[in-house]
Design goal:
The chain has 363 residues and is an alpha/beta fold. The protein has helices at residues 8-22, 32-36, 40-49, 60-70, 85-93, 103-116, 140-148, 169-188, 201-206, 219-222, 291-306, and strands at 3-6, 27-30, 54-57, 75-78, 98-100, 120-125, 153-159, 195-197, 215-217, 237-249, 254-255, 261-262, 267-272, 312-315, 318-323, 331-334, 345-348, 360-362. It is 33% helix and 23% strand.
């Protein structure tokens, strides 16, 4: 049996640390990507057990799963603007807080709320540099006119999204100042915006002064942050498989497709039933092509060339290297110096977003 294991105790530990760092500021648990691959409903139920009652999603099916798992009393925010009437109808029926990002959004939300004869709630999205969804700061006058014309859409919050909170601080501070100025300007014009929120996980850890009225945390709950972690967060998941076969291979024998590894000694090899079709060693592809990104990629490859290292797994609490290419369904590992037998469990580190073809098990 192989599965992706989510350790409930590690999730509880992370939420406890994050709540302490938030100092009473509400936390929106971001469960986009079907709970980062772990199941939005199951993750919501676990977060609910640990005191979180606000969730953020990007798909109606995630909202439905959370509503069913965590109850009617929790708040759910849709982080993606949409003009799809079918999607909006599903979200309204689930009492989801919507994102208002354009004049077109506002018109459709007003119309659908009128058809249902009940108001809907929305958070206003401000674009401070991400370039996707939201009103620009220079459109403040147009936003004032738009908000004053709303009859059935109630604005209960306003937010933006930082694009580089893991990088140079001055860039994020510039975005924060833009956001704050626009919010202040709208409220000075007599408009009520409700809750302000802008921090993702990286900004939450680096900039406590930006916590405002709420923070949106996803990767931090999973213990997988892109910045220095001052809270001692734990990675909450790993893949687990078993040793399916043990073999003793002679010195000089090759392993895997393309004979990528030639053994330098007699080697005891364990075959485990997990491979790249399950997400092992898969990584996000490079999706930006600026000169500095290309140079960074070249340097990363050069480092691998100068100091090659094979992926590792954990057998009996000890780390050991893989042999040859990672196969589609199987991987060979070196257990020459380990006590190991068929059926032993093997721990394999996989980013949950890369997990495929594995059931998720909560322990």
């Amino acid at each position: 049996m192989k599965a992706y294991i989510v350790e409930k105790e590690a999730v509880a530990h992370n939420i406890d640390r994050l709540k302490a760092h938030a100092g009473g500021v509400p936390i929106w648990a971001v469960l986009k990507g079907d709970g980062y691959g772990l199941g939005a409903g199951a993750m919501a139920a676990l977060c609910r057990e640990n005191g979180l009652d606000r969730f953020a999603v990007t798909e109606p099916r995630e909202a439905r799963a959370i509503r069913e798992a965590a109850g009617e009393e929790v708040q759910i925010l849709m982080l993606r603007a949409t003009t799809d009437r079918e999607e909006l109808g599903q979200l309204m029926d689930l009492d989801v807080i919507l994102t208002l990002s354009s004049r077109e959004d506002a018109a459709i939300l007003e119309e659908l709320a009128g058809e249902r004869e009940r108001p809907c709630r929305a958070h206003l999205k401000i674009d401070t540099g991400m370039g996707r969804y939201g009103f620009l700061p220079e459109e403040q006058g147009e936003v004032e006119t738009l908000l004053r014309g709303l009859e059935r859409v109630r604005i209960t919050g306003v937010y933006t999204h930082f694009h580089s909170s893991f990088g140079k601080a001055e860039i994020t501070r510039r975005q924060f100042d833009q956001f704050r100025r626009m919010c202040d300007g709208l409220e000075a014009a007599g408009l009520s915006l409700g809750e302000r929120h802008c921090c993702n996980s990286s900004a939450f850890l680096r900039f406590p002064d930006m916590h405002l009225d709420g923070v949106r945390l996803g990767s931090a709950i999973l213990g997988r942050v892109a910045v220095r972690d001052p809270l001692g967060l734990k990675k909450v998941g790993w893949a687990e498989a078993s040793v399916e076969e043990l073999r003793v291979l002679p010195k000089g024998h090759t392993v895997g497709y393309g004979a990528a590894t030639t053994l330098k000694r007699e080697t005891r090899s364990a075959v485990i039933g997990i491979g790249y079709c399950h997400g092992f060693t898969l990584q996000r592809g490079r999706d930006v092509w600026r000169a500095q990104d290309c140079i960074r990629g070249m340097l990363s490859n050069l480092k691998l060339l100068l100091r090659p290292s094979a992926p590792t797994v954990t057998v009996g609490g000890r780390s050991t290297r893989t042999l040859g290419h990672i196969g589609m369904l199987h991987t060979c590992v070196d257990v020459t110096d380990l006590t190991c037998q068929v059926g032993d469990r093997v721990r394999v580190e996989i980013n949950p977003l890369m997990v495929k073809n594995l059931p998720v098990e909560y322990r």
